[in-house]
C-alpha cells in the first residue's frame, strides 16, 4: 500500500473469511468492518459532525457529482479542502460520481469518453470522465477517492454489463494516470453485475493495476439478496487479502452481515439518515415506523438498551408527535438513533468475529437474519 496508508488485519474468523482490521489514513484510523455514514452534499443530513463522531463513526463519505455542481470542487479547495469545509477532522472518502451514471440514468449520456449529465439542479449539461472525476477528487482532498466507473442496473442484459465492466477497467487506468496526490488512496471498483465470470475478469484486471484498496460496485441495484450474496461469496476472497474491501451502497443489516462473512471490510449507505428523516427507526429486532398510531401513548424509548442520546431522553409518543407536527427535531432525533444503531451493529460484529459467534450475533440483532424484506427501504437507497 501507499506510504501514508496502512491496512492491518487484527483478527480472522476461524475457518472463515470474516475479519477485523485497522485502516490507517492521514486523518486517523478506521476499525473494520466499518459502516460509513453518507454526507452526499458535504453534510450528513440533519446532524453536526460531532454527533456523527459520537455515534462511533470513524469515517464519512461525500459525493463528487453533487459537490462539483454546488459549490464546485475549486471553491472547496480554496476554502481549505473538504475536511475543513465540512468541519470533519477524521478519515473521509469521496465517490467518483460513477454511481450517478446509474441513479440519474434519465439525465445522462454514456460514451467511452465519459458521461454527459443534465444537471438535476438547473438542467445544464456537464461532462464527467475519469480524468475530471479524479482531478476534482484531488481538489476535494478526501483520504480515499474512487475510480470513475459505470454501474449498470441490476436487471441489465449481459452485453450491457460486459461493456460497463470493460469501460470500468479502461477508466480505472485513466484515473491512475490522472491521480496527483500521494496523500489520497485511489480505490478501484469491480463491476460485472450478477455475472460471476465478468466479475472475475474485471477483478483480475484491476488487481494487476495494484490499487491500495478495492471496492465492489453495482450491487443493491435491483438484484435479490441471494444473488448479491452469491457474487460476494465468489468474489471477495479473490481480492487481495492485504487490501481493504469496500462494498458500495449496501446498508441492510442482513446484507452487511452476509458481506462481512464473505470477507468485506467497509460499507456505506443512506439508509440510516434517509429512513430517519422518514420516521423509520432501526432496532435490533426490526424497524419501527414511528408515525403509526400504535406509538401514540408509548413513553418508552425506540430501543430499551440503546445508549444513544435520543433513547436516553425521548419516548416513542413524543417522536411520533414531532413527525405529525412536522417539527424538524423529529427527523434529527431518529437520524441520531439510526446512526448509533449502525455503529453498534458493526461494533458487535467486530467483537464476535474472532470467535465466529454468528449465533450470538443473530440473537443480539435478529434484524440481521431478516433478508429479503423491504421494511428498511422507504425511498430507495440512492445517494
Radius of gyration: 20 Å
What's the CATH first level of the largest domain? Answer: Alpha Beta
List low-confidence stretches: 377-383
Strand content: 15-25%
Q: Which structural class do the helices and strands define?
A: alpha/beta
Percent helix range: 25-40%
Q: Strand order within the widest sheet?
A: 4-14-13-12-11-10-6-5
Instruction: Give the terminus-to-terminus CA distance.
Output: 29 Å
Largest sheet: 8 strands, parallel
Number of helices: 15
Q: Classify the fold: give the CATH topology of the largest domain.
A: TIM Barrel
CATH architecture of the largest domain: Alpha-Beta Barrel
Please give the domain count.
2
Query: Mind telling me the CATH superfamily name of the largest domain?
Result: Queuine tRNA-ribosyltransferase-like
Judging from the principal axes of the Cα atoms, what is the shape?
A: globular
Mean pLDDT score: 94
Say how many strands there are: 16
Protein described:
The protein has 383 residues and is an alpha/beta fold. It has 2 domains: 6-271, Queuine tRNA-ribosyltransferase-like (TIM Barrel); 276-369, no CATH class. The chain contains 15 helices and 16 strands. An 8-stranded parallel sheet has the order 4-14-13-12-11-10-6-5. Strands 1-2-3 form a 3-stranded antiparallel sheet, with no helix packed on it. A 3-stranded antiparallel sheet has the order 7-8-9. α9 runs parallel beside α10. The protein is globular and about 60 Å long. The model is unreliable at 377-383 (pLDDT under 50).
